[in-house]
Design a protein that fits this description.
alpha+beta; Elongation Factor Tu (Ef-tu), domain 3; 9 helices; 6-stranded antiparallel β-barrel
């Protein structure tokens, strides 16, 4: 999983995906006939198939992060979020500030020793945190400007049968897409294939929207993480998915309802090939599938999800076997796409 480690280490918050985009282009080029980027910054790989049915795979390359919106006289940085954060996860985290020079920093807040009883009860907002880079104000102002981005500083690490890192959302989806392309390299395809690493998903599925307008897919398969809420305190019906129980085939989320025939086709493939899978209903949140469905004129969509604990934190955790199952399921589906009716 060395490639996954490289992907999670690459810089690429929403709207500033240059670093991770360069890595994806390099990895995708040997796996498709041609690769291009559009004005938004989406990476689009293409392989011709037997039928002029357009299959789009979409996995977003952007990660949640922050943007500097103020540098004060003492050198402390104020930040605004790019993507959704639980403010409780931000306290005392290590970050990297990407200014004229890359700086290590920590997210600071008022020490508990001097908090009033009322302040102790209050939940901090993202905007109330600050970044300390350990330099005086005059030096910081020369190195950091409003609009510079801030990312988590956390490497991928082994955790039993699992791995943990920041930015699995959705670098693991990009990894699954690339590895599925590697599996099917040299094999005949039933329809035209577009593999799209999208931008700005975390701020409103924007890259997938523009790519769908340009391609106008017949079938759209998003590859993204989903919640594995299989932790203490969660009831069985609240768990969404479980780590180690295989690829998740999405039935619905708040952005899209998956095409039932695509869901059935994926289930049939998984059963035939003995690929472990589970069904997913996500009450809140969504994927690029919603954009592919709305921006195109005729797309039937579905999502293959990688179960993930602690989403949108520095310790997102996935199971190795689930990742393998997602790769196998996606690769197998590509080779059968369009072979069964996919419209109601």
């Amino acid at each position: 999983m060395e490639l996954l480690k490289k992907l999670t280490s690459a810089v690429g918050v929403s709207g500033r995906e240059d670093d991770v985009r360069a890595l994806i282009i390099k990895e995708m080029k040997p796996l498709v006939e041609n690769v291009k980027t559009d004005v938004m910054g989406n990476v689009i790989g293409f392989r011709k198939g037997a039928k002029r049915v357009k299959l789009v795979l979409a996995a977003h390359m952007d990660e949640i992060g922050f943007m500097v919106n103020h540098v004060d006289e003492k050198g402390f940085l104020r930040i605004i979020p790019l993507g959704g954060f639980d403010p409780r996860t931000l306290m005392a985290q290590r970050v990297t500030v990407h200014g004229k020079k890359t700086l290590n920093g920590v997210i600071g807040s008022k020490p508990i020793h001097v908090l009033s009883e009322e302040e102790k009860k209050k939940t901090l907002k993202v905007e109330e945190y600050f970044v300390d880079v350990g330099l005086p104000g005059d030096k910081v102002k020369k190195l950091v400007s409003v609009g510079d981005v801030v990312t988590w500083r956390r490497e991928m690490d082994e955790l039993g049968d699992c791995v943990t890192s920041k930015a699995f959302d959705d670098r693991v989806g990009v990894y699954v897409m690339l590895e599925a392309l590697r599996q099917i390299k040299g094999k005949a395809l039933p329809c035209d294939l577009y593999a799209v690493a999208t931008v700005q998903e975390e701020v409103g599925v924007r890259g997938a929207t523009t790519s769908a307008i340009g391609i106008d897919p017949d079938i759209g398969v998003a590859v993204d993480i989903t919640l594995a809420n299989d932790v203490p305190g969660a009831a069985e019906h609240e768990q969404v998915t479980k780590l180690g129980e295989g690829a998740a085939i999405k039935i619905l989320d708040s952005y899209s309802i998956s095409n039932p025939k695509l869901v059935d086709h994926l289930k049939a493939i998984a059963e035939k090939r003995k690929i472990k899978f589970q069904l997913e209903l996500l009450p809140r949140g969504g994927t690029d599938a919603g954009a592919l469905q709305r921006a195109g004129s005729k797309a039937a969509v579905v999502t293959i999800s990688i179960p993930t604990r602690y989403a949108h934190s520095t310790v997102e955790t996935i199971h190795k076997k689930d990742v393998e199952a997602c790769i196998d399921l996606l690769a197998a589906y590509i080779l059968e796409a369009g072979s069964k009716s996919y419209v109601l």
